[in-house]
Amino acid sequence: MLSNPYFLLFSSIFLGIFIGKFKIGRFKLGSSGTLFSGLFLGWLATTLLLKDNNLSSIQLLKASFHQFFLFSLILFISAVGLIASRDIKFIIKKFGSRFIAMAFVITLSGFILSYFFGKISGYNIYNFIGVYSGALTSSPGLATALETVPDFQDEITFGYSVGYIPGVLAVILSMYLIPVIFKIDISKEKEKLASEITFEEDKINNFDFMAFSFVIIVGILLGKININLGIIQFSLGMTGGILISALFLGSLGKVGPINFKMNKKILKSIQELGLLMFLSSVGLKSGYNTFNNLNEKTLILMFFALIIALFSILIGYIIGRYIFKLNWIILSGAICGGMTSTPGLGAAIDANESEEVASGYGATYPFALLGMVIFTKIFSLLN
């Protein structure tokens, strides 16, 4: 059974949901419990298969987990984008410039602290270029670094792989802990947001598979486009492309015979399934390396990554809450968007029990991608 990727995936989802139901005060893991169950089962399955010298099954599991990861990401992001598309024009009209500022504040904060740690730690500075991208869970950042300094790909990739899990955990836990630490009343925040913005009521009963597929097709194509801004080159990637496609087409509503406005309950079910599969697959494919490569260097770099991620989130929260006066529901999404964190978005939706979170995420994410590319490029050229 431990060589069956479907058994492991749904076992991870089952155990993760079970773990996520336990509460400590106001805190619970919710859907994010599947990340932890995935880490454990991924480590356990690979360890036992290695004892049997069953290398072919390990390779099959790796390939399967990667495909689960991509497919679940498509489901989650497309559903989130279509839900958020109903209200995105009101959100951008009211808070637009603040989201752009948030994106650059968060990515700049992570860059400054990563560069500082890289200089004082005594470790290879190129490890910290990877740690920066990992802590802010940014694949485009990693790609930019590898392209800029190709002679140090191993060091950069190692830093990214070490920094990714602490980065994911930092965002997920922050979404549950910030309201507790800063005594935010989520119910009151929802009421305030509803009084400020008139959200569209869900009167739609249909779900159009053709339209849903079209959103994904357009998004994948958009993600492949290389955006050239002089010395800065980047692409939105599959995640960014599908998000933009879903937000844009969903806000249009209907194009010819294709109707992009769909039933919210159905979209929420797809979103939840995508999130559970996504978090489980991240854990399953990272579990063995996370636990087996623990040594003094990796633990220290993971600690640095955790501090970088938490610092970026805290700066984002302070700027967004006390300077921009953003509502927590929208701000939580903007922080996740600034961290380019899909798992964080899922945690924010779960913790706040509100899909409006996705509007802040969708408005911030593209600018955070650009910020990561710019600051990673600068980081790479400084050394």
Q: Say how many strands there are.
A: 6
What overall geometry do the principal axes of the alpha carbons give? globular
Q: State the order of secondary-structure elements, H for helix, E for strand.
A: HEEHHHHHHHHEEHEEHHHHH
Sequence of strands across the biggest β-sheet: 1-2
Describe the sheet with the most strands: 2 strands, antiparallel
Radius of gyration, rounded? Answer: 20 Å
Question: Share of helix among residues?
Answer: over 70%
Quote the distance from N terminus to C terminus.
48 Å
* Class from helix and strand fractions: mainly alpha
Which residues sit in consecutive blocks of at least 5 with pLDDT less than 50?
none
Strand content: under 5%
List keywords for this structure.
mainly alpha; two-stranded antiparallel ribbon; 6 strands; 77% helix; Putative permease; transmembrane helix; YidE_YbjL
Write a structural description:
Pfam families: Asp-Al_Ex. It comes from Marinitoga piezophila (strain DSM 14283 / JCM 11233 / KA3). With 383 residues, the protein is mostly helical. The chain has a domain at 86-263 and 293-381. The chain is built from 15 helices and six strands. It has a two-stranded antiparallel ribbon with strand order 1-2. It has a two-stranded antiparallel sheet with strand order 3-4. Strand 3 and strand 4 (232-235) form a beta hairpin. Helix 3 packs antiparallel against helix 11, helix 4 (88-121) crosses helix 12 (296-323) and helix 13 (328-338) packs antiparallel against helix 14 (342-352). The longest helix is centred in the N-terminal third of the chain and has 34 residues, at 88-121.
